[in-house]
Amino acid sequence: MVLRLASGRIAVGILGVIALLAVLGPIIAPHDPLEGGTDILASPSAAHWLGTDYLGRDVLSRLLDGSRVSVLGAVQVALIALVVGVVPGILSVYLGRPFEWVTLRLADTLIALPFLVFAVAVTALLGNGIPQAMFVVGIMVSPLFYRVARAATLSVARSPYVEAAILAGASVGWVVRKHVWVKVLPPIAVALANTTGVGFVVVSSLTFLGIGVQPPAPTWGGVLAADLGYLSFQPWAPLAPTALIMATVWACNLLADAIRDVTGEAGRALLNTRTVHAAKEAR
Amino acid sequence: MKRRTLAVLAALTLGLSGCAGDGGSGGAAGESTLRWAVTLPAHWDPVVSGSGAQFRILSLAYASLTEIDENGKAVPSLAKSWDYNATGDQVTFHLRPGLKFSDGEPLNAAAVKAYLERAKTQKNSALFGDLTSIKSVTTAGDLDVVIALTQVDYQIPLLLGERVAQITSPKAALDPAKLDQSPVGAGPFVVTEYVPGSHVYLKKNPDYWDAANIHLDRVELQPAPDAATIVSGLKTGVYDFANLGAAQVKAAEGAGLDVVFQPGYNASNISINVNKEPFTNPKVVDAVRYATNRQEYVDKVTFGTGKATDQPFPPGYVAYDDQSANAYPYDPSRAKALLAEAGFAPGQIKLDLVIAGAIYATASEIVQSQLKAVGIDVTIKVDPNWEKPFFAKDLTLSLYGTTGRESPVQTLTAHFGPNGPLNLSTPYQPAGFEAAVAAARSTPLDSPDYAKNLQAATRAGLESRALVFTYSQPNIFVKTGKVSDITPIPGQIHWAGLKVEP
Questions:
Q1: What's the pLDDT band for B28 if we cut at 50, 70, 90?
Q2: Distance of alpha carbon B145 from alpha carbon B182, whole angstroms
Q3: CATH number of the domain that A254 lies in?
Q4: Do A127 and A136 form a contact (C-beta atoms < 8 A)?
Q5: Interface of A with B in 240-259 (CB under 8 A)
Q6: What are residue B155's DSSP bridge partners?
Q7: Does the pLDDT of residue B23 top 80, yes or no?
Q8: B47: which of A197, A208, B134, B395 is 20 to 30 A away, CA to CA?
């Protein structure tokens, strides 16, 4: 459905390329991303398309190799937030006042906390690794999913057909599976795409600060941070990692918009109209 | 009504601006002000601050017993002269008359005695290890400080310079915690305003012993911004003077700023703990020695501004031993062979290289790649509290860069001595080092044997398996054309004679 919108096609295209880089990056990298050379801070050339860094390492190879860390980190944040947020969000409508009160307060608390600072603290406590940091970030952004799932569930739970089903003896589980899940899924998909974008920003920010990975492992944020120290030699160097991060986050947001457009009522109507027109033209 | 409100606001504004006093930024028109972008010191008590690079900033507020000249020779400062007894185990410093601290207290022999005793005994003193040659301090009259030594030691005038003997007011030192944040000395300047993390303002001290040669009315210290923005800060006139990273030299020169390569005694090293596995095996240490390509540090850390060195000072220094130079040339094949002889397969040795912070980032990655090339896997760990395990000698492998010492013997004992703060392998010391150092220490500085004995001590120290020296980098500063030339004193900045156009 998303591919029927131009924005959706662009977003999926970019994210597809990024996913491919995550899988194939280390294989297609033209040089060993960890091997230095004598030609330090070199300008782009046929041998080094994006030049070399302060230790003479190929920047393109480092960006390609660093894709996996960024993609896995972002996906980890989104999935953890999804799992931790959606289930309590739906259950808060059905499990009574005490559960609702506790989960709402927990969500409020998590929203108030700065997740980057917490991620830094956790890496200091549990060791300098992206999985630990992203686990914490995932939990801290889960209130987004909690609130989205809860709002969608509330709108369904109070609708006449659901009340009728319950009066007819339907169980909560059946109602959730049959009616709630269908309503909750579209906004969750939008939130998932948005949160993946947030995940990319967080991974890049942490690795920019040198948190989450051990040198000499390459990351997008790490390459960017290193470039900033040598601007007098390579003023253009930050462009490549910045463009990569920006394009990926933009694609996530574009995908979220596209999902919203095709799953919202107006979007569905628009698509239906286009489908009818297309069918007529086909005839 | 509106007019009255405006008048009240204007009066309040004028009143508040009038309250700024001499602590405000910018100084009065026509004043000669130096604005220095620098990492602000955490400690302002020299006893706590120690003999690291921060002594340069503290030298604004404190005067020392001696100074050094361009050749590194001890010259008078608070002490106008000194003399040794015939046996060389007692030295008397003769102070200038009429000296006083910025709090009005007299700077006399009693004040110097109080300072040295505090540096030896205060619980958090970072200097007590430097003063082990001092047995006792007594006064002879108001101006003579008599220092009895535990051994014959002709290095004391060099030792009691800016790094170790920036004399503090004894009255202010009664509250060491306060002194640590509110300096009271007899230096060329007096702190008028100090906001930690923000700025420090100082004004000229008319009571400084060499006040006639201090041409700056005011110094403003501001926290150094990100390295990449220092050059633009100077170019736009925000600062006049700053410390500069080697990576920024090209940009500074391109911007038409004056880049100053101040000579120094700096030397960086890979610190090894021979009391911990796998370095208990001398062959593993030798493998690290042969795996070290010093030129790579010169090229990638100092951008060609430094020199490769395998000793705790730069080549050409009086204590540099030519006989020991290049004893372990870069030879990765030999390093691999030594590891094999020691029974280690490639990748079997896994080490944590614990470093203090970003300042060692590039060097640590070079260590990592050079050791990886011979089969040693290194994980870099940045520890913000690195000082604690390093000086407690708990680490196995680390990096350190010293700014050196005015006394070469002090440099040697700090690195190779059994209790040397820079010896990660305490109490290990190489055989013969103690005797060689004693010989160097007991040689008068003007003796024809001085250089020979000093170099013999260096040679003995370099038998240590605890240190692999890598490179030496000069101290790099950048200044605008408004600031006059800086006298090339090794490792130090002398404020006398320095001028800034108003």
A1: low
A2: 26
A3: 1.10.3720.10
A4: no
A5: none
A6: none
A7: no
A8: B395
Model confidence over A147-206: pLDDT tens digits? Answer: 999 998 998 888 888 888 888 888 888 888 888 888 888 899 999 999 999 999 999 999
Size of interface A-B (CB pairs under 8 A): 49
Question: Residue B223's beta-bridge partner residues?
Answer: B38
SS (H, E, C) B186-239: CCCEEEEEEECCCEEEEEECCCCCCHHHCCCCEEEEEECCCHHHHHHHHHCCCC
**pTM score of the predicted model:** 0.83
Domain that holds residue A187: 2-282
Alpha helices in B105-159 (DSSP H): 109-121, 156-159
Q: Nearest Cβ partner of B365 from A128, A215, A229?
A: A215
Nearest to B368 among A40, A215, A229 (CB): A215
> Which residue in the set B227, B228, B382 is minimally distant from A210, CB to CB?
B382
What pLDDT, on the 0 to 100 scale, is given for residue A269? 52
Contact map slice: B 332-361 vs A, CB within 8 A: 358, 361
List Cβ neighbours of A196 (8 Å cut-off, separation of 6 or more). A74, A75, A77, A78, A252
Q: What is the pLDDT of residue A147?
A: 93
Q: Which two tokens stand for residue B254?
A: 């391109």
Is residue B15 over pLDDT 50? Answer: no
Average pLDDT over residues B273-290: 97
At B226, the pLDDT band (50, 70, 90 cuts) reads confident
A215 contacts in B (CB within 8 Å)? 361, 364-365, 368, 380
Domain tally, chain A: 1
Nearest CB neighbour to B362, from listed A54, A128, A228: A54
Q: Of chain A residues 19-78, which have a CB less than 8 A from chain B?
A: 34-36, 38, 40, 54-56
Question: Is the bond leading into B427 cis (omega within 30 degrees of zero)?
Answer: yes
User: Residue B10: pLDDT above 50?
Assistant: no
> CB-based contact (8 Å) between B228 and chain A?
yes
**Mind listing the domains of chain B with CATH numbers?**
1-12+29-40+196-260+475-502 (3.40.190.10), 43-181 (3.90.76.10), 267-472 (3.10.105.10)
Q: What percent of chain A has pLDDT over 90?
A: 57
